[in-house]
Sequence to fold (166 residues):
Amino acid sequence: MFCSCVGCEGADVDYVVPIYTLSRTQTVQMPLEACWRFFSDPRNLSKITPPTMGFAVLSELPEAIRPGLMICYSVAPLFGIPMSWLTEITQVRAPEYFVDEQRVGPYKVWHHEHFFRAVDAERTEVRDLVHYVPPLGPLGAVLNAVLIRPQLERIFDFRREALSAT
Fold:
């Protein structure tokens, strides 16, 4: 997908920013309310993040997310180099969805939508939709193909396995 924002079309630019999308859906063996409690508790994020990411939460965390909640992390997504990542929970509609967006971090844009739907009384469909723009302009497109996208796929693969074990 390429940016087609109002004002962008016909603009005199050397490079059109690609907006990448990652979508994952899985069914977990949890009732909707239990699934929501797990995902809406930001203290659980480390349970579904690969240890290789060097993930550490640096801010105080409440038991549940809310719009406006800012969460500061340290992550080492590439080559073990740590960096700060600040996300904001921008939307919450319990128990259906929430959205987190990067405010400071490795991406130019990171917008992550989390959706939850009861399949039946004991299972919930969890769907993630991530829109992101890597840093570094045209070089970011190359890095996305070689490093960033494969890393994101591994992160969500780990998450799928971690959730399957719960």
